Amino acid sequence: MTEVPTLTTERFTMRPAQAGDEHALFPAYSDPGHMRYWSRAPFADVESFREYLFDPNSGGRTWIPVPHGGGDPVMTVYAGARLEGVFEIGYMILPNMQRQGIARECVSALVTHLFRSEGAHRLFADIDPRNTASNRLVRSLGFTREAHLRDAMKTHIGWCDTWLWGLLEDEWPH
User: N-acetyltransferase domain spans which residues (predicted)?
Assistant: First the structure.
């Protein structure tokens, strides 16, 4: 697996997952409302979430943003290489951290890193059309909605549509 380099934003240090992070992040990954548009059901216990968070076969890398001055993790940010130069991104913010610009700040830092430091050509995100906040975030970062796939994935809530969003390196001005 590729290394997870430490990234910094104005307010956060984005680092690899560490033992204990699972306890701080569990409220997001166990909440049915927060996990509604995730590809799997909420986690029932911290141990199963820990296995997921630290799975060496996940096919990607996860960054954990923590405040510069110390404190608990505020979200997870993910990048998975799908083809040469192509990465899928994902993220999950803790419910009590929403609407503070945190996701925008941290996802923007990841996008910049993937394009400028890792030579990515294309990034994409796969988001349920009903996930208004997540769709608004990627749109605000310059992603283009490229596809609407109907009943594309069967999840814990049934068959779900997906919107595919894409961003090319030369479209990223940051």
Answer: 12-169
> Residue with structure tokens 């990048």?
79
Length of the chain: 174
What would the two tokens of residue 45 be? 């216990």
Which CA distances in Å does 44 have to 4, 31, 78, 139, 149? 27, 9, 22, 32, 29
Band of pLDDT at residue 57, cut at 50, 70 and 90: confident
Both tokens assigned to 162: 């997906």
Give me the chain's average pLDDT, please.
94
Instruction: Look up residue 79 and give its two tokens.
Output: 């990048």
What pTM does this model have?
0.94
Residues 130, 148 contacting (CB under 8 angstroms): no
Closest to 53 (Cα-Cα) out of 25, 33, 74: 25
CATH number of 7-171: 3.40.630.30
Helix (H, G, I), strand (E, B) or coil at 90: strand
